[in-house]
């Protein structure tokens, strides 16, 4: 099946470059080019593309506001085309939180105008497999209840560590999850599959909504209550180390389950070091990373939770974990904190 793509960018040169990078792929068809949000909105209605590439900085309505409208009115898989300034990275992180499925750096491959090694085409193929939802639909009914549940819970002291894994759609899901964490939660570690260049901005975005403090993990960083540690996203696996006192470990290595950092690497280390005193949470994502690690945690007696199909952007990683019998609980994203802390 041919994937139909609409390109929205205010630069005629960039529109041509993106179109050229996709046109050589027989399974991808560029069906339209738009220079701003107004034109893009009309073409989305007329053409009903499978995937949209969207620039952030555009005259009139910017890409972030337009993305919000797309996800609210006509949910469509969107790939953000972004620069690498700090401001651009912050906006891209916010876009991922609004439901964009991936981000493509327009400054990459600048020296080879028409070639990028198939990077954009690969993103388009993955985006075409994504099920997008109307934004905020799963969390709205449950925002109050999980907060009461976690604040009233009397069993939190037994939990020494929370380990979380996510991929496609994960930034959006993590915002919902962490918003419902208590301020004094046990230390939590997150592996989210994302370009390392956007990880600091994602940490800032998550920190802005979480009662707990969200930071990027660093080597040998002590794990403290009330803190959430996000993997830097570079070529190092995030793991837990220590026995009496726990600390973060970042180590180079081959990809595990196709990823580096790998959710499986984190979960396996938690199963070994923390055992039954841990909580494992596996969220939306393509593939199977984290499924075997969640099973290992489950087998040690840890509380293991998988996001349900209805609220996943991609029901891949949780689906495999559930099929293995790794998840003690399957829950919508808006209720996972309640199950973790009650």
Tags for this entry?
342 residues; alpha/beta; Rossmann fold; 7-stranded parallel β-sheet; 5-stranded parallel β-sheet; 12 helices; 14 strands; elongated; EC 3.5.1.44; Sig_transdc_resp-reg_Me-estase; CheB_C; Sig_transdc_resp-reg_receiver; chemotaxis
Describe the structure in your own words:
This is Protein-glutamate methylesterase/protein-glutamine glutaminase. Keywords: Chemotaxis, Cytoplasm, Hydrolase, Phosphoprotein. The active site is at 167, 193, 289. It comes from Novosphingobium umbonatum. The modification 4-aspartylphosphate is found at residue 55. The chain is of the alpha/beta class. It folds into 2 domains: 3-127, 3-Layer(aba) Sandwich (Rossmann fold), CATH 3.40.50.2300; 140-341, 3-Layer(aba) Sandwich (Rossmann fold). The chain is 35% helix and 21% strand. A 7-stranded parallel sheet has the order 8-9-7-6-12-13-14, with helices on both faces. Strands 2-1-3-4-5 form a 5-stranded parallel sheet, sandwiched between helices. A two-stranded antiparallel ribbon has the order 10-11. Helix 3 links the parallel strand 3 and strand 4 (78-82). The longest helix has 13 residues, at 86-98. The chain is elongated and about 60 Å long.
